[in-house]
From TrEMBL:
EC number: 2.3.2.27
Organism field: Fraxinus pennsylvanica
Name of the protein this chain belongs to: RING-type E3 ubiquitin transferase
GO BP, one annotated term: protein polyubiquitination
Record carries keyword Membrane: no
Pfam annotation, one family: U-box
UniProt cross-references to SMART domains, sorted A to Z: Ubox
Gene Ontology MF terms in the entry: ubiquitin-ubiquitin ligase activity
Length: 1037
């Protein structure tokens, strides 16, 4: 019969377990495992105390200290030993679970738990005081030994993009216990070092690098209260220093390198690796579309992982009331220190990268999502006073929609006289805001609810906390988008233009090689080809991170939808007409709020399907309300940008039938769109910019395209005709005047440039003489040739649009064209165009490829003749022929016949040709009558002549300031383009003119007397003829 194995006591079991965990021995048994340390001195002390050489819970800390303090050269380093002890404790704990004796199992579980707690505690001590215990490791690293453990904890969650933690793994539960139970004072230096190492691991990491592991490690740390507190109290949370700027914050703050990760290009000094452009898009023109699409998808995926991770980090910190203020402070510092990113030229050494701000844009939009609901139920939480009352963001210096800085200061002083009053009323304001936030509990996620509801001050002594989180987040997002996403749009547009310019120059150089080859030219071609390759890579990087990210654009559109609805709420909602006086809350808002919304709409409109699912009605309402309102939006270029948005939405351009309802079934559009477009066409004449003369043509081109489209819509055409009738001598007359001015200038400029171009062509075609010229001269003349080509193409395109607008509107609206102040100007324009197209010089305008320059002389002639005919049809008083012949510069009766011959050859409608010929006949009669009238008047006294035109005045008026007398039609014509007295430049309007009734009566009397005199002379002449006839008859008889 076998003897039963003796039962171990609880103390023996405890000894066995603890020795396995601690890897120590009290007996020199020549242990084969070098990690097991013989504690000779400890054993001797225990024996001297009369105790057994057994490990127990009472001896654990004593043994641990002796193990860590001893000179065991071949043993594990202190921190590694402690972590492995914890790991062994965990393993032993699993074995204990299978013990049958519940009492023993409970005792052993308690022992293991105490041991684990002890190891964690000494890990904190070791990391906080690395020199406390001897470390014989010769491969010491400058990186915190805790970092590989943190990486190993989050590494398994990295979907193929993570890096290795070097084979080190964290024991289950170790990090949780380490961070959860540590006090802040002991943990602060440990976490400080850990955050610095995390930041170091992210320096110059691109979108294709290993950023996800450090990012998840950061998220793990901030989820612990002690980790969150240590992060925001780190000296590098917001770096300090005399030379602090946007780039310094990006490169030295803890979060900066995380935000720097991007696919977008950056300055060479800060270039990240791997190079995204080189790795994904080199020689893109030769790559398969599937390869490019794969690269686009990869970049979009990893960047959205970054956005989501950074959002989680910030959301975690914002939910914590102890760290929220620090986060808002960091965001404000980043924004304020990078305000120069709004400039046209950005210094990359003092401003953060585009990548950082695009990333921050994506993160801020995610933070806004809880209050971007369809009903915009939280918009009332956005307080306009934040713009000039908050000390956090520097918003006061930004250009306002309408108010000047002086007006804003005066208004603030009126509504908020003195800082003392602000402080006194602070508690009332806080109570009001607290009540307003109680209604924000409708969010679906707990973290969102807590953020949306929070409105308590972060600090009782801080006045910065008077605004709710929604308000802070709204305005911070507006600034970040302006400096980030919208700036990236601008950079992308400039990049595309740079590529286009380089390609044009390259084309020119290649053409020059055929005419004058040289080594320098070949070098220039090679340089340009390299530049184009680099630019193309950068362009595709922008496309990958921004244009292809539909989610980013959709979030931005949702944000700006809230922006425009909120702005309109400041003026009383979506209704017209607007209040006569612009509310100061609206007038003080930064101009870029609206400009950025318009830029986003333009950009998104040019990306296929980017506007899918976006409700555009409120944007349309906003544009119609403010595009022509100088009392609400001072900047004419901003109002012109609104037209550019509408231009993108025209059905033929957008390729979407959905946008047609915005124009054809939209109430405000039907009532106000045409009127406001006409008004803006006039207003844009004077922008205040030194480039206003050239800017107006492009802006008016956009307006003209819209008007041409709207003319095809019957409801808009009816409104247009009504406006022309009601505003015959108002805005519509001004519109016609500027339309005619532009048409004359653009066509005249184009035709003159064609003559210059033909001279250059003739020079270059004479190869013998051309090759004898110096190379530099040939290059300069070639560049001039291509420059002239571009100018002609642009000017002719604009001229065609203007002439077309005149042609189709004059078909149904003729009265304004035939007003006294307008009819002669219209006739002169038509005569000039007719002279150029069918006159003696027409052959000199022939081009080899006229379509290349948008020059269509046949179409132009048809349109010009149609305008002639349209006005003749509406000329009930027969004043048009007289106006035509008054033009002494271009009128020639033979031109009508020449034009009719051309029209017959190109197949114009016979009825139009006949009416045009009839008009030519009427001009002959008018010319004859004009000669007779001139003969009747004889020598006209100077005081009866208009001092500008030197023609007999019909309705003289006195200018109130200079007291000069002019004919009413002449000064009216002048005032259409210039609202000043032509003699002293003082302000002048039509209603200020003083009728000179006395002079008018004198002129009328002069005309009457001259007519009587002429009749008497004719009578006397006839009598003389009769007498001579009688005498002759008598003689014959």
């Amino acid at each position: 019969m076998a003897t039963q194995k003796p039962q171990r006591t609880s103390a023996e079991i405890e000894d066995i377990i603890l020795r396995k965990i601690f890897f120590v021995s009290f007996v020199d048994s020549m242990e084969s495992d070098s990690r097991v340390v013989y504690l000779e001195m400890t054993a001797a002390e225990i024996l001297s105390e009369g105790k057994e050489l057994k490990m127990s819970r009472d001896l654990m800390e004593r043994v641990l200290i002796d193990r860590l303090s001893g000179n065991f050269v071949s043993a594990e380093p202190p921190f590694q030993y402690l972590v492995n002890c914890y790991r062994r404790a965990y393993e032993e704990g699993k074995k204990i679970g299978s013990m049958k004796d519940k009492n023993v199992r409970g005792e052993m579980e308690m022992v293991v738990k105490q041991a684990k707690k002890l190891f964690v505690s000494y890990c904190r001590i070791q990391l906080g005081n690395p020199d406390m215990f001897p470390n014989w490791d010769t491969n010491k690293s400058s990186v915190s030994p805790l970092l590989p453990l943190v990486f190993s904890e989050v590494g398994s969650n990295i979907d193929g993009f993570g890096g290795s933690s070097g084979g080190v793994s964290s024991p289950p539960g170790f990090l949780e216990e380490f961070f959860r139970d540590g006090d802040y004072d002991s943990m602060e230096p440990i976490l400080k070092k850990l955050y610095e190492d995390l930041r170091g691991s992210m320096l110059k990491v691109s979108a294709l690098g290993n950023f996800q592991q450090p990012l998840r490690a950061l998220l793990l740390l901030v989820n612990y209260p002690v980790g969150a507190k240590a992060l925001v109290n780190h000296p590098w949370w917001i770096p300090k220093g005399v030379y602090l700027n946007g780039r310094v914050i990006e490169m030295t703050s803890i979060l900066g390198p995380f935000l720097h990760v991007s696919a977008l290009p950056d300055h060479a000094l800060f270039k990240s690796e791997p190079d995204v452009g080189q790795q994904c898009f080199s020689e893109a023109s030769t790559r398969r579309p599937a390869d490019l699409l794969s690269s686009f998808t990869t970049i979009k995926t990893v960047m959205n992982n970054l956005y989501d991770g950074l959002t989680e980090v910030l959301m975690c910190l914002l939910k914590n009331t102890n760290t929220r203020e620090n986060v808002l402070g960091y965001l404000a510092e980043v924004i304020n220190r990078n305000s120069s990113r709004a400039h046209l030229q950005v210094d990359p050494l003092s401003s953060a990268s585009s990548g950082m701000f695009v990333n921050l844009s994506a993160v801020m939009l995610r933070l806004c999502e809880p209050f971007l609901d369809a009903n915009m139920s939280k918009k009332d939480k956005v307080d306009p006073k934040y713009v000039f009352d908050s000390d956090r963001l520097e918003l006061r210096g930004l250009t306002a929609l309408h108010a000047s800085s002086e007006e804003i200061s005066d208004w603030i002083n009126r509504i908020n006289p003195g800082k003392a009053d602000v402080s006194a009323n602070n508690s009332d304001g806080e109570n009001r805001l607290l009540k307003s936030q109680e209604a924000t509990s409708s969010g679906s996620k707990a973290n969102e609810v807590s953020l949306l509801q929070s409105n308590r001050p972060m600090s009782s002594c801080s006045q910065k906390a008077k605004y709710p989180f929604i308000c802070e987040c709204f305005f911070m997002t507006a600034r970040v988008l302006n400096l980030g996403l919208l700036k990236a749009f601008s950079d992308f547009k400039n990049l595309v233009q740079d590529i286009s310019r380089c390609e044009d120059t390259l084309s020119t150089f290649k053409a020059m090689v055929g005419q004058a080859p040289s080594p320098q030219l070949q070098q220039d071609i090679s340089r340009l080809e390299k530049e184009i390759e680099l630019y193309s890579q950068e362009k595709l990087c922008y496309e990958a991170q921004i244009l292809r990210d539909g989610g980013l654009l959709q979030r931005a559109l949702s944000y700006y939808h809230l922006m425009v609805v909120w702005l309109v709420s400041l003026v009383g909602g979506f209704k017209m007409p607007l209040p006569p006086a612009c509310p100061m809350e609206f007038a003080c808002m930064p101009e870029h709020f609206v400009e950025d919304a318009m830029e986003l709409l333009i950009f998104a409109s040019r990306i296929p399907r980017a506007l899918d699912g976006i409700i555009l009605d409120d944007f349309m309402n906003f544009i119609i309300m403010f595009m022509a309102s100088t009392e609400y939006v001072r900047n004419p270029y901003l109002r012109a940008k609104m037209v550019e948005v509408l231009n993108c939405w025209m059905p033929r351009r957008s390729g979407s039938t959905a946008t047609s309802t915005l124009f054809e079934g939209h109430q405000l559009s039907l009532e106000y769109l045409v009127k406001n477009l006409l008004k803006l066409y006039v207003d844009i004449e004077f922008t205040g910019s030194h480039t206003q003369f050239y800017d107006k043509f492009n802006i008016r081109h956009n307006i003209a395209e819209l008007l041409e489209y709207l003319w095809q819509v019957p409801s808009h055409r009816n409104v247009w005709r009504q406006i022309a009738k009601e505003e015959e001598k108002g805005v519509y007359l001004n519109f016609l005047n500027f339309l005619i001015n532009d048409s004359i200038y653009l066509l005249d400029e184009s035709l003159n440039k064609i003559l210059e171009l033909k001279e250059l062509e003739a020079e270059m075609s004479n190869t013998v003489e051309w090759e004898q010229r110096p190379q530099q001269e040939r290059q300069e003349r070639t560049r001039l040739f291509h420059s002239q080509e571009n100018i002609i193409r642009i000017d002719m395109k604009l001229a065609n649009e203007d002439v077309s607008l005149l042609a189709f509107t004059s078909e149904q609206i003729t009265a304004p064209f035939l007003l006294p102040e307008m009819v002669e100007r219209v006739a002169s324009m038509l005569n000039y165009f007719l002279l150029q197209l069918v006159g003696p010089q027409r052959k000199s305008l022939s081009l080899k490829d006229p379509e290349k320059y948008e020059f269509r002389p046949k179409q132009l002639l048809k349109q010009i003749v149609n305008i002639y005919v349209n006005l003749a049809r509406g000329d009930k008083e027969n004043i048009f022929p007289a106006a035509i012949i008054k033009d002494g510069r271009s009128y020639n009766e033979q031109l009508f016949g020449a034009a009719a011959d051309v029209l017959r050859r190109i197949g114009e409608d016979a009825r139009i040709i006949q009416e045009f010929v009839d008009l030519g006949a009427k001009t002959k009669v008018a010319a004859s009558e004009a000669l007779d009238a001139e003969a009747v008047l004889g020598d006209i006294p100077d005081e009866f002549l208009d001092p500008i035109q030197y023609t007999l005045m019909k309705d003289p008026v006195i200018l109130p300031s200079s007291r000069v007398t002019l004919d009413r039609s002449v000064i009216h014509r002048h005032l259409l383009s210039d609202g000043t007295d032509p003699f002293n430049r003082s302000h002048l309007t039509v209603d200020m003119l003083i009728p000179n009734t006395e002079l008018k009566a004198a002129i009328e009397e002069f005309i009457r007397l001259q007519q009587v005199k002429r009749r008497v002379d004719n009578s006397n002449t006839q009598s003389s003829k009769d007498k001579i006839q009688t005498m002759n008859t008598s003689l014959i008889d």
